[in-house]
Amino acid sequence: MIKVLIIDDSPLVRQLLTHMLAQAPDIKVVASAEDPYEARSLIKQFNPDVLTLDIEMPKMDGIAFLRNLMKLRPMPVVMVSTLTHKGAEITLEALALGAVDFISKPKSDLTNTLLDYTDELIQKVRTAAVSHVKALSRPVAKVAAGDRFANAQDRLIAIGASTGGTEAIQRVITPLPANTPPIVITQHIPAAFSLSFAKRLDSQSAIKVIEAQGGEIIESGTAYLAPGDTHLSVEKRGARLYTKLLDSDPVNRHKPAVDVLFNSIADCFGGNTIGILLTGMGKDGAQGLERLKAAGSHTIIQDEASSVVWGMPGAAAELNAHREILHLDKIPTRLMELLNTNKAVENN
Questions:
Q1: 196: closest CA among 341, 343, 86, 52?
Q2: Annotated catalytic residue: which of 81, 188, 205, 297?
Q3: What is the number of structural domains in the chain?
Q4: Where among 129, 144, 172 does a domain terminate?
Q5: Is the pLDDT at 345 greater than 50, yes or no?
Q6: Which domain does 41 fall in, by range?
Q7: Which of 30, 175, 323, 330 is the most buried (most CB within 10 A)?
Q8: 334: exposed, middle or buried (C-beta count within 10 Å: 0-12, 13-18, 19+)?
């Protein structure tokens, strides 16, 4: 039985979240708190497996509470945030602090619309319960710029991630030098959050990070992030690669889907790609990574020890879709080693 503590200053939201989680036979809401101060004593009393945490609360906001929690008693947290620009910024900060995931709180008609999120909330609480939560991460060390990136335009780095991925992507991207070959990224994220995530990465990185608009020439020194609720793919026109957005059905229940991105690269570029599959629940990206490997790409998966959830990388490992399994913090340095060779691929 997964024990859950709900922390929210709204009695209505506490009641609705309790009702929603009661639909799952393996989840029990053991208590609820209206502010972090009450939550502290309830955590000691009930020892919950997962917290749901509101961001805006009296006495102490959710971010301040989460920061203290992750320093003193790291545990799985699912944030309850609003689908607004401000809500996206604060939620991304919460994920950077160690929250496992988030569920969006509707801005209006709360009683009727929040209940529509029941299945999503239950799944995210279940995922959080089996996640690997760690204390606050140390700063990311920069890696040395490559001296043999003259052919950077003939290389491509492709990254896929889900649960825990916003922080994992940040730890891969921010150490890289400005002359890094182009990067394309699919992270499972809602449309209201992807632009904020791209801007956050851009502010922390030497490379330029943008939300893909579709039709851009893929250039070195730039990372292109899939917009939320839209698939990102890559197409080749002549000698150049371009971004392409697809408003088609979800794949592996996700939109954007990592498999859509990886499969498109396998079809048009293949061998000079480095494919990286990071932490995430489910199996999205595993089949696409297998195709990248078959096309001659060098493929890397994040190891279980450093993953928040070893679902997607684990599924790729079962398919033997990887050439290497690496701890998250070793991936940037390994990227530089691969990019400083004559080819991005080492057929092990």
A1: 86
A2: 188
A3: 2
A4: 129
A5: no
A6: 2-129
A7: 175
A8: middle
Q: Is 205 a catalytic residue?
A: no
The single-letter DSSP state of residue 190 is -
Q: Catalytic one among 35, 284, 297, 298?
A: 284
The pTM of this model reads 0.92
223 and 322 share a domain? yes
Q: Is the peptide bond before 256 cis (omega within 30 degrees of 0)?
A: yes
Q: Is 301 exposed, middle or buried (0-12, 13-18, 19+ CB in 10 A)?
A: buried
Q: What is the pLDDT of residue 308?
A: 96
Which CATH number fits the domain that encloses residue 48? 3.40.50.2300
| Total residue length of the chain | 348
- Ordered DSSP codes for 32-60: EESSHHHHHHHHHHH--SEEEEESS-SSS
Q: Would you call 132 a catalytic residue per the annotation? A: no
Quick one: what percent of the chain has pLDDT higher than 90?
78
List 81, 104, 131, 162, catalytic entry: 162
C-alpha–C-alpha distance, residues 300 and 190, integer Å: 26
How do residues 95-132 score in pLDDT, each as one tens digit?
A: 999 999 999 876 667 777 777 789 999 999 999 999 99
- 85 noted as active-site residue: no
317 is a domain residue: yes
Backbone angles phi, psi at 10, to 5 degrees: -90, 120
135 in a structural domain: no
Instruction: Quote the pLDDT of residue 85.
Output: 67
